[in-house]
Structure formats: C-alpha cells, structure tokens
C-alpha cells in the first residue's frame, strides 16, 4: 500500500493555502 494520495493531497492543500493568502 503506497501513499500515492498523500502527495497530490498535500500539493492541493498548499495550493489552497496559497490561494487563500493571495485572496485576503
């Protein structure tokens, strides 16, 4: 069982955080 879903999930989280930071 390889955690292949952790990378894209973390990337999405980082992108969301960056987007929120830019929006505010």
Give a brief rundown of this model.
The chain is mainly alpha-helical and 24 residues long.
Write the layout of secondary structure elements.
Layout lengths: L5 H18 L1
Structure, described:
By secondary structure, the chain is mainly alpha-helical. Helix content is 75%, strand content 0%. It is built from 1 helix and no strands. It has one helix at residues 6-23. The radius of gyration is 11 Å and the shape is rod-shaped. The mean pLDDT is 87.
Mean pLDDT over all positions: 87
Biggest β-sheet strands, sense, barrel: none
Number of helices: 1
Structural class of the helix and strand makeup?
Answer: mainly alpha
Order of helices and strands: H
**Whole-number radius of gyration?**
11 Å
Distance linking N and C termini: 39 Å
Report the uncertain regions: none
Count of distinct strands: 0
Oligomer: single chain
Strand content: under 5%
Approximately how much helix is present in the residues?
Answer: over 70%
- Silhouette: rod-shaped
